């Protein structure tokens, strides 16, 4: 996969990506409706924190706006039901890591139903036990301060871009790069002080 921004978008690729996104949107709207009808909330506590659903249309807007395809590998830290990973896989290769087995299974099942399994992998586990610093882009929707994650990145002398979704306490050791908003949702981008991006081999489940 080429690393870098293309100055001209391919209309055919754009149309194909839009069609795939609409399939993702329909899938998750149907899934959320079914969960709510069965009494399940779109929020739950896991052994490591909290998960809340994200809206696919907001994610697509953000990822298209920042040209996520510039990155070789995105790792979604605490990927929940896989909606972020599936939308991001329209732009680059993705690994989603989730401690909750049911949520991780939902993400993996979605990728198969949507025909995205060649572009997204899922790992059921704690992201601190994985080699997340092999990615050049990390995504997190935090429910607590980012100090633990920052310590991991600092110890590994990681160079890359951190995408932080939703309200959060800003990291102390990373450099603010950009902010994006869509309605009430927010995506904030941070880089390491020495710059972003590096060659990133894929993780393995």
- Name the strands of the widest sheet in spatial order: 5-4-3-6-7-9-8
**Strand/helix succession:** HEEHEHEHEEHEEE
Task: Please provide the count of β strands.
Answer: 9
Unreliable segments of 5+ consecutive residues: 1-8, 195-205
Topology:
Layout: H1 11-37, E1 43-46, E2 49-52, H2 56-65, E3 73-77, H3 83-88, E4 93-98, H4 101-113, E5 120-124, E6 137-140, H5 147-155, E7 161-165, E8 175-182, E9 185-191
Parallel strand pairs: 3-4, 3-6, 4-5, 6-7
Antiparallel strand pairs: 1-2, 7-9, 8-9
Describe the structure.
The chain has 205 residues and is an alpha/beta fold. It is built from five helices and nine strands. The chain has helices spanning 11-37, 56-65, 83-88, 101-113, 147-155; strands at 43-46, 49-52, 73-77, 93-98, 120-124, 137-140, 161-165, 175-182, 185-191. The protein is globular, with a radius of gyration of 16 Å. It starts with 10 loop residues before the first helix and ends in a 14-residue tail after the last strand. 37% of the residues are buried. Residues 1-8 and 195-205 have low confidence and may be disordered.
Short account of what is shown:
It contains five helices and nine strands, in the order αββαβαβαββαβββ.
Spell out the key features of this protein.
5 helices; two-stranded antiparallel sheet; 205 residues; globular; disordered N terminus; seven-stranded mixed beta sheet; disordered C terminus; alpha/beta
């Amino acid at each position: 996969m080429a690393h870098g921004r293309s100055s001209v978008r391919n209309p055919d690729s754009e149309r194909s990506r839009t069609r795939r996104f609409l399939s993702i949107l329909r899938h998750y709207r149907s899934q959320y409706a079914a969960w709510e009808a069965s009494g399940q909330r779109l929020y739950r506590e896991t052994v490591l924190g909290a998960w809340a659903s994200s809206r696919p249309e907001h994610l697509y807007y953000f990822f298209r706006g920042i040209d996520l395809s510039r990155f070789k590998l995105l790792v979604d830290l605490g990927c929940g039901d896989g909606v972020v990973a599936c939308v991001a896989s329209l732009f680059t290769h993705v690994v989603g890591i989730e401690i909750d087995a049911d949520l991780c299974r939902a993400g993996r099942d979605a990728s198969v139903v949507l025909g995205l399994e060649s572009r997204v992998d899922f790992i059921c586990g704690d992201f601190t036990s994985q080699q997340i610093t092999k990615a050049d882009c990390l995504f997190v929707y935090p429910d607590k301060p980012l100090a633990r994650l920052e310590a991991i990145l600092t110890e590994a002398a990681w160079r890359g871009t951190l995408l932080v979704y939703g309200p959060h306490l800003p990291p102390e050791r990373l450099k603010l790069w950009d902010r994006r908003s869509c309605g009430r949702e927010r995506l904030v981008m941070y880089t390491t002080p020495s710059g972003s991006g590096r060659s990133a081999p894929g993780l393995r489940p």
